[in-house]
Amino acid sequence: xxxxxxxxxxxxxxxxxxxxxxxxxxxxxxxxxxxxxxxxxxxxxxxxxxxxxxxxxxxxxxxxxxxxxxxxxxxxxxxxxxxxxxxxxxxxxxxxxxxxxxxxxxxxxxxxxxxxxxxxxxxxxxxxxxxxxxxxxxxxxxxxxxxxxxxxxxxxxxxxxxxxxxxxxxxxxxxxxxxxxxxxxxxxxxxxxxxxxxxxxxxxxxxxxxxxxxxxxxxxxxxxxxxxxxxxxxxxxxxxxxxxxxxxxxxxxxxxxxxxxxxxxxxxxxxxxxxxxxxxxxxxxxxxxxxxxxxxxxxxxxxxxxxxxxxxx
Length: 313
Fold this sequence. Notes:
By secondary structure, the protein is of the alpha/beta class. It is built from 15 helices and 8 strands. Strands 1, 2, 3, 4, 5, 6, 7 and 8 form an 8-stranded mixed sheet that branches. The N and C termini lie far apart (114 Å).
């Protein structure tokens, strides 16, 4: 009878969950709290999307300037450090570059050397003084073009490359920027010094993209020295090779066979300047029929040392 009673009590305890072993086995374990999902960064815009978002007054020049073809030829891409020489106050290319290279990239804007501006003539003291603050003024003005995901902006002037920028750039863009430095080369070595800075700012193997008003090979050398805005292709290649770059590509999509200047003409007679038209509708129409200038498109790669320096060792 005692044995039967004991067995009955064990059964009742087990049925009610009072046994310690059963209680432990059925204890509910709180579920681990899920980690919040990390926010997914939006994809950077494509070049096509960036170009489509530009204002209409910029788009009207796509046919002449061909920014898509140019930036692809010069191997510009998201996340790069890109140097834009002489970006201009309107920032036509800057407004394309900032969103395209994106927040992971950086734009370094470069202006002519301080001593070069007085060579042009016609600039007021106020305008010359303004150039002294350009390295802070331009990045500040470019902030409005960055948007939410645009690249950061820094600046320097030729002859004043900061040590911290040396060897950091992936691409340097010289968009119609060489002729003025060439025209004053004999009065301050402005072109040679600028190309030395271009070489120094680039990483090993970095790219230089050049778009430049091109003089026909048969034109007089003394006319094609930059004063009229035009340079010969052979001249540009020679100067770049001497500065430590190898030619790795030439493109012809910006050639304009209608641009046939005489040795009395200069490039600014053409659109968008119409410098010789003086409001004359017929002259403007004639220049429109020609279109923008004939331009060379050259791509160079940085080599280890400038040819001139190597020859002197």
